[in-house]
Structure formats: structure tokens, C-alpha cells
Structure of Serine-threonine kinase receptor-associated protein:
Amino acid sequence: MGKNLRQIPITCSGHTRPVVDLRFSEITPYSYYIISACKDGLPMLREGDTGDWIGTFEGHKGAVWGATINKEATLAATGAADFTAKLWDAKTGTELNSFSHRHIVKSVDFSLDSQYLVTGCNDKNLRLFDLNNYTSEPKVLSGHTSNIKKSILANGSRKVISISDDKTLRVWDTTNNTEISQLKFNDIPTSIEQSRDGQLLILSHGNCVELYKLENMEKIKSFSIPSHVSAVSINPDKSLFVCGSENFTLYKYSIESGVELESFKGHFGPVHCIQFSPDGEVYASGSEDGTLRLWQNTVGKTYGLWKLIDSEESISNTSNIIS
């Protein structure tokens, strides 16, 4: 690959307001997929490697703050300002159920087996819903003292991890609805993600990115980033991470050396969300500018819509506009 190769993203248009959350599925027999949440109230499903629009989930009556898709890409879930979390058939776009809340739902996440859905709400509570019994009352996890920003179900367990505007990360045991442990920060934590093998947790707060062992929340490494970090994601082989910032910049770091590998601007607004694809070939970012963009992990590699032309140009398709 020539040294003059430059990072040119695939730009996925279609949203009309800020894109605030996104999530890739795992690799399925057909492909892999990405769902995006937007303040326009219309979450979208796309092909994960090309960004091609597949469909829009219609039914919310307010800004959608959280979106997720299960690993098989058969179910999707969204959380919104209309005080609901909705469960969708990802293949047909059909709404399967709407779960009522007492305030804005900011976060949604499936368990690894797709049997449970955890939600984080601005009423400061987490709720765990049994997807085999829609009418059953959810388990409620209480303890945060401010709005919940993100909540995830740890792989292979019934453990919930959440971050909040109260400047804490909390770990919960859902078998008895109790808080197991708590981490306190000087800044509001902005993002958490577990590695795809379920071993590590990556977290951002302020100008800092931190890695923890998911099993016992032991801190492994800490990285200082030049700008305030709004979102972070670790690649599948756990060798590097990417993060987005409020100054419109994306950064890539080696986890082993701590060295910054790449930094560039592409969005025209702060970056709100970011995640690696399940094969690690691309990562997606969503921004205040209303777009979702796909970036190559290895610039110049022939993959998806990217085609290597010569050492002076990295791709022939510089954008994929979806209207």
C-alpha cells in the first residue's frame, strides 16, 4: 500500500437530525448489518459493509436515543423520547412489542442469547425485560442518582453494567437485583463497550480511554486522548481502539503500545457514537451532522465498496449516498 493512501469514508445519508447511537450485528450467513438511532425518530437498518439502506423502523413518536441489533440480526430494539423501548423483527421491520417507561429511554441492549433486553432510562432506573413474556413486570435496578447514559448486558451472564450522569459506572447482579461494584470518575463517563469475546470493557470519560477486565473490573490500561472523548470501540482482536470526539476528530490507538496510529476529520459535527464491524474491517461513526460514516480499518484494502486504484488513490467509490 502506498504511503499516499488517504482515508475516505462511505457517507450514509438519510437521517435528518443527529445520529446518536449505532450497533453492528455479528456476521450472519447473509452478511452483517448495522442499526442507527437518530433524533429524527426513524432508526434505520443498513448493510454493514456497504452502508446500503435496507429499511426504517417506523413507530416512535419522538427522538430515538438508543438502538441495538442482536447477533443473528433477527431482532432489533430502540429506546426513545416517547417513554418507550420497542422490540422489532429485524427481517420485516414489524414492531413486536412496546415497553412503557416513566421517562426518556436512552439505552437498549440484548443479552447474548436474545432472551432479555436491558434499558436505561432518565428516571435513573435500569429495567430488565424477559423477551419470552412481554407482559411480565421487568426487574428494576435502582441506585443511580442521575440520568443513565448507557447500559449493557455482559456476555454469558446476567450482569448489567451502566454509566450515568452521576459520574459513576455500576455493575449489577440481576439474579438478586443488587449493585455489585461501583467506579467513580471526575468526569461524566460517555461510553462503554464490551469486547466481542466478552473479556474486556472499554470506557471513555473526559480526555481518557480506559480498559478493564470485565470479570472483576480490574483496570488494565489508560490512554490520554487529545480531545474530549464522546465514544469508543475496541476491534475484535483487541489490538486497537477507535474513538470519536467533540472536535469532529476520530482517533485510532494501538492498545499494546499506546501509540496514536491515525487521526482525521470527516464529520461536520461532534461524533456521538462509534463501533467496529464484527470482522474488524470497518468501523462506523455517527455524528451531530446527521450522517453515519463507514471507515476502513486498513486504508486502501479492497473491501465492500472500496477498490484500490493505485498508490495515489485509496478507493474508487468515495461515497454512497442513501436518500
In short: The chain has one domain: 10-319.
